[in-house]
Amino acid sequence: MAESRVHNQFKLTSEHKVKANVGEEVTLPCHLSPDTSAVATTIRWFKETECIYLYQNGQVTERSGYEGRVSLVTQELERGNVSLRLRDFRVSDTGDYICQVIHGEQKEEAVVGLLVRGGKCSRSPVMFLNT
């Protein structure tokens, strides 16, 4: 009898830092490598030590304060995309996020830092010409 499962070994790949403007939707990238289905895995996203999103057996649990603002692209799970979408980005959302994927005995984690993109006040030098 064949069973549907993720390859015996997988790794998580992500970007180290992501920047967004307040109010935007931002994606925290995280992918299984090699590209394999994540449908039968447990996926957890943490902000520092707090679990803000849990996907397990097709069921989703969102932490208070993140309800309706966080999601996975479920149609992308088949391709190993476990990236987290965060809507209505707030300054309080900045920090380190940990993507954790568990399948059987294997548990992998990847960290993505979320920063506020520089606002309208830039610190670039300005030169004035006296004419």
From TrEMBL:
The protein's name: Butyrophilin subfamily 1 member A1-like
Task: Provide the gene name from the record.
Answer: LOC120041184
Q: Which GO terms label this protein's molecular function in UniProt?
A: signaling receptor binding
Intracellular or extracellular location(s): Membrane
Q: Which PANTHER family match?
A: BUTYROPHILIN, BUTYROPHILIN-LIKE PROTEIN 9
Single GO cellular component term:
external side of plasma membrane
What's the source species for this entry?
A: Salvelinus namaycush
Primary subcellular site in the record, as a coarse category? membrane
UniProt xrefs under PROSITE patterns: IG_LIKE
Keyword vocabulary terms for this entry: Disulfide bond, Glycoprotein, Immunoglobulin domain, Membrane, Signal
